[in-house]
Amino acid sequence: MARAQNDTKARIGEVALELFGRQGYERTSLREIAERLDITKAALYYHYPSKRDLLRALSEPLRQDAMGLAERFGERSDEPREVLGAYFDLCVRHSTLMVTLLHDLAGLSESGLVEEVVAWRRRLDVALVGEDAPIPARMGAVAALGGIQDIAVLMPAEEATLHRGRAVEIALAALRVGMSGMD
Amino acid sequence: MARAQNDTKARIGEVALELFGRQGYERTSLREIAERLDITKAALYYHYPSKRDLLRALSEPLRQDAMGLAERFGERSDEPREVLGAYFDLCVRHSTLMVTLLHDLAGLSESGLVEEVVAWRRRLDVALVGEDAPIPARMGAVAALGGIQDIAVLMPAEEATLHRGRAVEIALAALRVGMSGMD
DNA sequence: GTCTATACGTCGATAGAC
DNA sequence: GTCTATCGACGTATAGAC
Q1: In this structure, are residues A163 and A119 in contact, taking their beta carbons and an 8 Å threshold?
Q2: Shortest-distance nucleotide from A53 CA to C1'
């Protein structure tokens, strides 16, 4: 029945997220996950077609959120402060998952998230400095997004949130120095 | 004889670097490396005690270089421009290896480089804003280093080198905005 | 000192019975 | 929906040839 299906599937996801986060994707075997739930490896395969799909399912919320952001700033924006602020908020909102995956790069690789993050950031680059910006301007955009992302992910979430305004100003300064001299 | 030892060991390293870079660490099996050299898996085991050690050996030059930088700026520097420039140069100098590892996060994880990079960057944070800097100042340092690192790694090496001065100025601007208001 | 032959245990994944 | 049984490939390990 549908009830049991959702129950088991959800419980598998919970256990997997905990174990992946604690000891990493590669070091967590399907046998280990199955034993915690008192089922067999083969039962997992009824709910998820592969170990990789199980991992991907865990990062789906972040994926959805980022797609929304990319669509919102699909073309060049004249409000860079808004773009940088929204990107900061997204990084903070999912910082737990991001840190979990960051501490487990093998899993991050397998999740396919990296390629997507690179693609999203390119779209945000365009939103910040336009399509065919000169090299220095693109440098400013890359540094602004890379800098604000590092603040959100590397620093404690509470500290980052408390000084959100300053974080945006820092990124904005990098962006401006990159663009100075542009027409 | 010592000659043969170096030859085989070096050839293993070359093939491994190429295959790891092309298809990733996890997806490259020791059997595959061995077959390319017309030797057996067990022969690899003679030269490198494990697959992990083989990978670590490949990132040794970067490791040495970064250790030198960390020691050079072990304590707070009053020349942030110099610190940022030196970090930029290091990222560019090893950008091929860094990009290779970046495209293969599973390998990056196994190499143990991430923890070291985080540690080096913390030392550079201290060199930039001091030991017990307030949160906004630390934000500036994190954004400055994260931004300049992204420029060096994400942008084409030629473009980055050509505009090295601007990259340093961008990072410097982020650092300044973070520190503004500090005593 | 350098390498081969062979094996062990574990992994992700599949087939088919209940 | 879950089981048992099994698969091929993997990293690792050791004994012994040369």
Answers
A1: no
A2: C12
Q: How far apart are CA A100 and CA B132, in angstroms?
A: 27
Element (H, E) at B179: helix B164-179
- Do B88 and B171 have their domain in common? yes
User: Which residues form the domain of B42?
Assistant: 2-57
Task: Tell me: do A138 and A107 sit in the same domain.
Answer: yes
Per-residue pLDDT of chain B (183 residues; tens, 9 = 90+): 445 567 899 999 999 988 988 888 888 999 999 999 999 999 999 999 999 999 999 889 889 998 898 888 878 888 999 999 999 999 888 877 777 777 777 788 888 888 888 888 888 989 999 989 999 999 999 999 999 988 988 889 899 999 999 999 999 999 999 999 875
Sign of the CA dihedral with A24 first, then B114, B63, and A139 last: positive
Q: Of B57, B80, B95, which one is at a domain's C-terminal end?
A: B57
Tell me: do B153 and B79 sit in the same domain.
Answer: yes
CATH of the domain at A21: 1.10.10.60
The integer distance in angstroms from the CA atom of A29 to the C1' atom of C9 is 14
Which secondary-structure segment (H or E) carries A33?
helix A30-36
Q: What is the pTM of this model?
A: 0.83
Instruction: Please report the number of interchain residue pairs, chain A to chain B, with beta-carbon separation below 8 angstroms.
Output: 127
> Can you give the distance from the CA of residue B183 to the C1' of nucleotide D8 in angstroms?
66
